[in-house]
Amino acid sequence: MFPIVPIYYLVTWLRNKLYDLGIKKSVSYDFPVICVGNLSVGGTGKTPMIEYLIHLLKDEYKVATLSRGYKRKTKGFQLADKNANAASIGDEPFQFFSKFKNDILVAVDSDRRNGIQNLQQNNPDVILLDDAYQHRKVKAGFNVLLTTYANPYFKDIVLPTGNLREPRIGVKRADVIVVTKCPKVLSENEKNDIIKHINPNENQHVFFSSIVYSDCLFSVEKTKMIEEFESFTLVTGIANPKLLVGFLEAKHLNFEHLNFKDHHEFSEQDIDELNKKQLIVTTEKDFMRLKQYDSLKDKLFYLPITVKIDDEPKINKLIKDFVKR
Question: Which positions bind ATP (predicted)?
């Protein structure tokens, strides 16, 4: 597939150039719109970053999230309500709604312009765009770009041989660059080396974040400490489960791992197989798709995660200052 790389590069570069020159039009807004996205295909930690921003802003502002709603069964604009589920709005938006439904608005629309226009009828103070970095029809006021420690964008190339959705130069549109999924201990030398490769502009800020796993597992009705699980089946349908597997292995837990592709749609055959398992641990995103099955209710638990950013006061101030402006 490598011979296709230059063609893909040229097409995506030209598309971005047309937007940069104003030949293709981007719509900007007179209220805060924050975009969280990446250059690569999946697995950078957008969902926990959106949740970080929700926690940061929800007590002071009316927050709305707008996602594409990947693999949902509906079309067009959908505003989450009491009837929402993973099939109607997608697993990640349903996760936002399940956790914050009394505090925020959650909407999906593949057309972000149309989604924002519809959300405006509900008068949000700030809109968080989930995975919209390449959606150039909308010009967010503030862009948060994520790239992983294990596979940073500056060591990658564009599709189809690499994982980049657009050329590396796209990083220059970001206001904040967060290197995600870092080791808990990251030396200043390592940070400086990564920053050197990123080569940020004067107006860009680089941060480093790591994943923090909960000590508790949750089901629809129960909460248990992770140490209570002597043997279980781990079910994942995420882009990269390596960190989760490593976390569980470090605790010397006994488990088998059923690894599905990202956003996997569980079939009846899959559910039949899972029904044979005595205890199942999964990610919060996968839990949103699996909890609808009553047969799994008493055996299905998820392990929540949060992100810890190396300089939280600074990034929090940058975000809040933008919203105030």
Answer: 40-47
User: Whose CA is closest to 311, among 194, 205, 212?
Assistant: 205
* Three-state secondary-structure class, residue 43: coil
- Contact yes or no for 50/284 (Cβ under 8 A): no
pLDDT on residue 230: 85
Cα–Cα distance measured from residue 65 to residue 286, given in angstroms and rounded to the nearest whole number: 20
Taking residue 240's Cβ as centre, other Cβ atoms within 10 Å add up to 17
In sequence order, which residues have a C-beta less than 8 Å from that of residue 171 and are 6 or more positions away? 39, 145, 153, 177, 198
The rounded distance, in Å, linking the Cα atoms of 161 and 60 is 44
Each residue of 212-269: pLDDT tens digit?
A: 999 999 999 999 999 999 899 999 999 999 999 999 999 999 999 999 999 999 999 9
Q: Is 47 annotated as contributing to ligand binding?
A: yes
CATH of domain 215-303: 3.40.50
Query: Which tokens go with 278?
Result: 């005595």
45 is in an annotated binding site: yes
pTM of the model: 0.95
| 44 has binding-site annotation | yes
Q: Where are the alpha helices (DSSP H) in 199-311?
A: 242-250, 268-275, 284-290
Check the annotation: does 24 bind a ligand: no
- On whether 46 is known to bind a ligand per the annotation, the reply is yes
Q: Which of 56, 12, 59 shows the shortest CA–CA distance to 34?
A: 56
Contacts of 65 (CB under 8 A, 6+ apart): 50, 54, 93, 96, 104, 105, 106, 107, 127, 128, 130
237 is in an annotated binding site: no
Q: What is the CATH number of domain 22-211+308-324?
A: 3.40.50.300
**Dist. CA 13–CA 325, nearest whole Å:** 31
Pairing of strands 205-213, 305-309: antiparallel
Phi, psi (degrees; rounded to nearest 5) at 159: -60, 155
Beta-strand runs (E) in 81-230: 104-108, 126-130, 142-148, 176-180, 205-213, 216-218, 223-225
Does residue 42 register a pLDDT over 90?
A: no
